[in-house]
Amino acid sequence: MHYVRYGEKGAEKPGMLDDQGRIRDLSAVIPDLAGDVLGALPKVDPDSLPLVSGNPRLGPPVGQVGKFIGIGLNYADHAAEAGMEPPAMPIVFMKATSSICGPNDPVYLPRGAEKGDWEVELGVVIGKTAKYVSEAEALDYVAGYCIVNDVSERAFQMERVGQWTKGKSADTFGPIGPWLVTPDDAGDPQGLDLSLDLNGKNVQTGNTSTMIFTVAQIIAHLSELMSLQPGDVIATGTPPGVGMGMKPPRFLKEGDVMELQIDGLGKQRQEVRRDA
Q1: I need a labelling partner for 105 at 20 to 30 A (CA). Which of 74, 148, 150, 260 fits?
Q2: 174: Cβ contacts below 8 Å, ≥ 6 apart
Q3: Are 166 and 249 spatial neighbours (Cβ–Cβ below 8 Å)?
Q4: Domain boundaries, the chain
Q5: Which of the four pLDDT bands, split at 50, 70 and 90, describes residue 78?
Q6: pLDDT tens track for 131-168
Q7: pTM of the complete model
Q8: DSSP label at residue 106
Q9: Other CB atoms within 10 A of residue 208 CB
Q10: How far is it, in rounded angstroms, from Cα 150 to Cα 42?
Q11: Architecture of the CATH domain 59-274
């Protein structure tokens, strides 16, 4: 099933897609796609739900996110373009939850930004509390999958003293969606094509089969370090083709358009602007 949250920012309502890709209102069934609801998503016939008229804004498909966790250098060819060795264990960083926005909302480069960059990633949404889970059982804790654009500011990330979080957390640096796709519909999370186009030109292409650490391995590893809660979002790494790896490097500028796609998980589109 494909779940959505639609409406103005901060007032999104839960919905789901019918067979024609139209949004059906779920608000009479659940209050939101958040918290414990994610561990028992309603399985209802979309055609039995009210049809949402017009073309409403799509918000992030999960609400009340407690943790927004990133995995770095999780594709060997991306590590190579960054000039770094593939990690022996998952590299973990945090993105501020205030960076989360809808899949088609504008992305704003913060004041002082010099090296804005793009990263198409498979997003994993946790459905129930996971603590000390094994790799074999890890996928049982997944509510669904989505697209994440792990937008980064490389100067903040690499050149300012501290952790990567500095370059990952500006407002709008975490577009999520458009849909939350349940595991039965998403299929094997290690067999999904993903891509990103910049101004109509393809710059990133990859497949999740080339991840260094699988989704199951990532969940198991994280659950040893911290408990994962319903609604936590994990961005699992990006394939090659980021601006930082180009020769010469190519960074985001005002007016650029990013378009992202992952098999079965929909599409995103963001226009780049500068923060006031």
Answers
A1: 74
A2: 68, 95, 99, 100, 101, 148, 149, 150, 151
A3: no
A4: 59-274
A5: confident
A6: 999 999 999 999 999 999 999 999 999 888 888 999 99
A7: 0.96
A8: P
A9: 24
A10: 29
A11: Alpha-Beta Complex (3.90)
